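Lab intake sheet, docking and co-folding queue.

SAMPLE TYPE: protein with bound small molecule
LIGAND NAME: NAP
LIGAND FORMAT: SMILES
REQUESTED OUTPUT: full 3D complex as structure tokens
PRIORITY: normal
SUBMITTED BY: R.K., bench team

The fields below were copied directly from the construct record.
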Amino acid sequence: MSMKKVALVTGANRGIGLETVRQLAAQGVTALLGARNEKRGTEAADKLKAEGLDVQFLRLDLNDTTSLDNAAKFISDKFGRLDILVNNAGVALDFTIPASQGTPEQWRRTFETNVFNLISLTQKLLPLIKKSEAGRIVNLSSGLGSLTLNSDPNSTFAGIAGSTVAYDASKAALNMFTIHLAAELKDTPIKVNSGDPGWVKTDMGGQDAPLEVTEGAKTSVWLATLPEDGPTGGFFHLGKSHPW
Ligand SMILES: NC(=O)c1ccc[n+]([C@@H]2O[C@H](COP(=O)([O-])OP(=O)(O)OC[C@H]3O[C@@H](n4cnc5c(N)ncnc54)[C@H](OP(=O)(O)O)[C@@H]3O)[C@@H](O)[C@H]2O)c1
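RESULT FIELD (auto-filled):
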């Protein structure tokens, strides 16, 4: 069995996920670059390999159950365990649609990727994460998923509350999954946390975002490599606790 840590990052062909793979691999982790599109995933992995990093493409489409089963089997056969799972893949389908107009279909599609299938993947990989000496699960949430910030009229989030409701709610639901899974696993070495990357320049974040991806991946990488005495069941941005 390889002594290097093995990490899987979902939605890693671009954006924060890609940079998370780069930073984890730069720390000596074997990083599996999860991507739903074979061409985009292979190209992204090849670029990082050319930088001398230990990165492998792994096909993974959250909305394709077979690909999740295949990914779990690949990791089991090849490594026999998984040390780090970064649930990074996510969609924002409704940034301009107010709460009064969002359709159940938009809510459903958002929740399929950001919540239901993320949970399914995590459950499929959990037996492998339990085989790690120090399993770490990182769920990419958002400040937009904070009920406290959304409902605070003095918060910068207050103005946009209501225009991103299905996305925000999906991240709030994900936060609840974090809390429950962490509590269930509290007597194991596994740590489960939600991370808010901040507002980051990516296809999703747009070009007005203040943070570059190097900064945006830091929260994920920190939570993925927490020491034994690190937190579990929390919600963090760049090392600081976020209100739920
Ligand atoms: N950027 C921000 O400001 C910000 C702020 C707070 C939280 N976040 C969260 O951080 C995470 C990464 O965001 P980002 O800005 O890097 O987003 P992004 O640039 O839009 O990239 C999203 C990634 O997720 C993948 N993905 C989407 N649906 C998928 C599916 N069904 N199966 C597998 N992969 C899928 C995409 O793959 P394709 O290339 O194939 O589409 C892509 O690789 C997300 O969970 C997001 O909600 C971002």
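REVIEWER NOTE: The longest strand covers residues 30-35.
SIGN-OFF: pending second check by T.M.
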